[in-house]
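STRUCTURE:
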């Protein structure tokens, strides 16, 4: 991971860094400490699990995927089996989407390539520490009747959406989904969150326990098409197969 100056971290938030690469571990650990974090490093999963199992908590675990003896996904599995719900961010050289999906489905809150800048990692860490990532879906801020993000404008008081100045004819349900995704740009929204936003927590639909996913996919397909009807190049809504959706964070991508 390339190291650049970034915003200072939350005061003395406790991080655990698990990576078998000594140089990477030392370099990243020093940069995190300089950013204001309390960092404990481990060369592998077993000592990290022993540390946490002994009641020595932390705020976030930064976890390498490819490690000898015990890989990162196994470390995550054992954390969750032990009832430890500490947020986990994977740091990895693996770029295939299948690894990201496995990490998120396993209970990680983020998956960052080691080639990304240190400033990106800091942003992700601070989002978690301030409770903005991985939290349950919330109602959009009722005190902000107009929401603007790049080319998107949402008039919440009348449930009307505009893209590059052109109105997008969304239904009220579609508007709520766009509002949730856009207000959490760069952060994931699970299928269940999107469905519960529309129908209320615990509402079941479709066939089987996971039937609501097909309903959400149908909504998102219609939403995308409506935006593409006014802008054929629209691609702000990213799909994470088996997990959910995310509105692109263009500011972060350009960092």
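SEQUENCE:
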């Amino acid at each position: 991971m390339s190291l650049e100056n970034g915003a200072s971290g939350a005061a003395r938030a406790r991080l655990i860094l698990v990576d078998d690469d000594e140089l990477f571990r030392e370099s990243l650990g020093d940069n995190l400490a300089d950013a204001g974090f309390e960092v404990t490093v481990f060369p592998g999963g077993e000592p990290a699990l022993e540390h946490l199992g002994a009641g020595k908590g932390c705020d976030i675990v930064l976890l390498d995927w490819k490690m000898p003896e015990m890989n990162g996904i196994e470390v995550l599995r054992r954390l969750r089996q032990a009832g430890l719900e500490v947020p986990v961010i994977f740091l990895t050289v693996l770029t295939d989407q299948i690894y990201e999906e496995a990490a998120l489905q396993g209970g990680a809150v983020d998956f960052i390539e080691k080639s990304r800048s240190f400033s990106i990692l800091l942003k992700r860490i601070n989002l978690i520490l301030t409770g903005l990532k991985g939290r349950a879906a919330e109602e959009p801020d009722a005190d902000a009747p107009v929401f603007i993000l790049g080319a998107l404008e949402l008039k919440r008081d009348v449930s009307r959406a505009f893209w590059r100045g052109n109105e997008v004819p969304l239904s009220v349900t579609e508007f709520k989904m766009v509002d949730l995704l856009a207000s959490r740009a760069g952060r994931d929204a699970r299928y269940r969150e999107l469905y519960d936003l529309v129908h209320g927590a615990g509402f079941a639909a479709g066939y089987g326990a996971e039937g609501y996913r097909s309903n959400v996919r149908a909504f998102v397909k219609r939403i995308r098409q409506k935006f593409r009807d006014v802008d054929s190049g629209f691609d702000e809504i990213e799909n994470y197969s088996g997990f959910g959706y995310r509105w692109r964070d263009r500011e972060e991508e350009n960092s």
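REMARK: The radius of gyration is 20 Å.
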